[in-house]
């Protein structure tokens, strides 16, 4: 007797029925929800949503009907969410998800392969390896290159800096950090990145025992790229002051501006100075699929390590990212052997040897299915569309009076701008940002530049057109007008 038949997928009729029922019901509810064209956000205040969620039952003793639970999830969770598929969703690096990838998520969940040891991912191991190899070739990395899927840019950047640190200590001081911990000189190690680099560079440095103090931020030029001459001077200054500059962390697609550091020049600077070059291409790495813009990645193939996210411009469900190294031997700095998992004497592929995670999702499948079903041509078209849209948007904003655009020639699809106001530009921009958010008509982001409040479009969604952009800006303009009138009246 098996009383749990309807909880797990198997040959039994009970199992088959429950699998079909809950999935088709979920699918119908979601389809119906989007058929009703919800706004990008229903505009409820945080307190209100918090309260609704707090009132949900946490668990049940005897189990509840799927329909009842799904109904509540639709009402309290789905309805109160941000809808990234909406073309008015233009805020963060937060993408709509491809339908083939959603189907892949179902297979991933059913198979539940774990990518740590071969005996938990007998086929998945090879599919991930195959896809990693294909991506490495696309990036024009050397034959010695290798990579692994990760949970995203944060983990990939952490891995890049970890390998940079351990490689430097091993090659310069014959010091094995894995065994011995940090050497006495570790507090003099330095990582150089631009002031627009992602915050996870500093966060990783602090987690790696180097402290945030190890990160030297280099000013950016007019195009928000790391200023190479300043970088070179800083490397020399650090060396002559007794510090050890060990890594340049370049950004290919900064989060705010989408700017791309001069990868070729940075490669040279790194190799001249015996430094590791890590390229954070979490955002910009997707250009590898763009026929028109892939040239912007020139030089990435010479990096010692590379971060790419697929849950941004590759339209994958969270989470999905990858980390690549120029020399696969670099992974030695993070491999460990456990007798029960990946014994040293075994020559099977155990991907745990290349990861900071142990149990790990088979995320490669969703990217793989997307690449096959959507095809490279449409990936290229989608990315190109968003970049063209950003270009048009920036031009249009620049010509609109009362608006100041910081990057009027966006490299990718992010644009930072703000409404001008002599009295209180910060107050005005924050106010109109909130008005738009709670109207649910469109969703944009905000950021601070040199301490001042700015607004931001991240036009990742290939379904977004100028119509949605203009609608959002009109709504912002209207709120700005009202705000200024109130200011006058005071
Ligand atoms: C998004 C992003 C990250 C962080 O990646 P997660 O996937 O959110 O962990 C790091 N660097 C850049 C440039 C990013 O855009």
Automatic annotation (TrEMBL):
Keywords in alphabetical order: Decarboxylase, Lyase, Pyridoxal phosphate
Keyword presence, Lyase: yes
Keyword Lyase recorded: yes
Cofactor: pyridoxal 5'-phosphate
Annotated GO MF terms: aromatic-L-amino-acid decarboxylase activity; pyridoxal phosphate binding
InterPro entries associated with the record: PyrdxlP-dep_de-COase (IPR002129), PyrdxlP-dep_Trfase (IPR015424), PyrdxlP-dep_Trfase_major (IPR015421), PyrdxlP-dep_Trfase_small (IPR015422), Pyridoxal-P_BS (IPR021115)
Pfam family, one: Pyridoxal_deC
N6-(pyridoxal phosphate)lysine: modified positions: 312
Top-level lineage group: Bacteria
GO cellular component, one term: cytoplasm
Gene Ontology biological process terms, A to Z: carboxylic acid metabolic process
Gene3D superfamilies given in the database record: Aspartate Aminotransferase, domain 1 (3.90.1150.10), PLP-dependent transferases (1.20.1650.10), Type I PLP-dependent aspartate aminotransferase-like (Major domain) (3.40.640.10)
Family membership: Belongs to the group II decarboxylase family.
Protein name (Swiss-Prot/TrEMBL): L-2,4-diaminobutyrate decarboxylase
Organism: Cytobacillus firmus (Bacillus firmus)
